[in-house]
Amino acid sequence: MDTTRQQKINRLLQKELSEIFRKQTQMMRGVLVSVSVVRVSPDLGNAKVYLSIFPSEQAKEILKNIKTNVKTLRFDLGQKVGKQLRIIPDLSFYLDDSLDYLENIDRLLDSDNNKDE
């Protein structure tokens, strides 16, 4: 169970990271990176960031690039939230594939409905 402080920091980090990714992906046409969930550890030292990347065919490559540039992202985040947080958490990025999972379920249900007809 997250404390109120953790929830506030989760929302703050999600908002600021979303803005950073929006600015960085403006240059790359046809690519959208959105921050779906941020979870901060109880000591506020680590943050797990779940990303939803479109198009999903390029998701692994984009996530790999993000992971190699994690220090730069943490620095940019520190520039934005440095006045609100004493310690900028270490960032670990994960792929949020829940939309792909839902799409697969919809496709399976549609194919099942077509078989019944």
From TrEMBL:
Entry keyword annotation includes S-adenosyl-L-methionine: no
Record's keyword annotation contains Cytoplasm: yes
SUPFAM superfamilies on file: Ribosome-binding factor A, RbfA (SSF89919)
GO cellular component terms given for this protein: cytosol
Keywords attached to this entry: Cytoplasm, Ribosome biogenesis
Localization (cell): Cytoplasm
Molecular function via GO: ribosomal small subunit binding
GO biological-process terms attached to the record: maturation of SSU-rRNA
Subunit organization: Monomer. Binds 30S ribosomal subunits, but not 50S ribosomal subunits or 70S ribosomes.
Biological role stated in the UniProt entry: One of several proteins that assist in the late maturation steps of the functional core of the 30S ribosomal subunit. Associates with free 30S ribosomal subunits (but not with 30S subunits that are part of 70S ribosomes or polysomes). Required for efficient processing of 16S rRNA. May interact with the 5'-terminal helix region of 16S rRNA.
Protein family: Belongs to the RbfA family.
HAMAP family: RbfA (MF_00003)
Protein name in the entry: Ribosome-binding factor A
Classification of source organism: Bacteria, Pseudomonadati, Bacteroidota, Bacteroidia, Bacteroidales
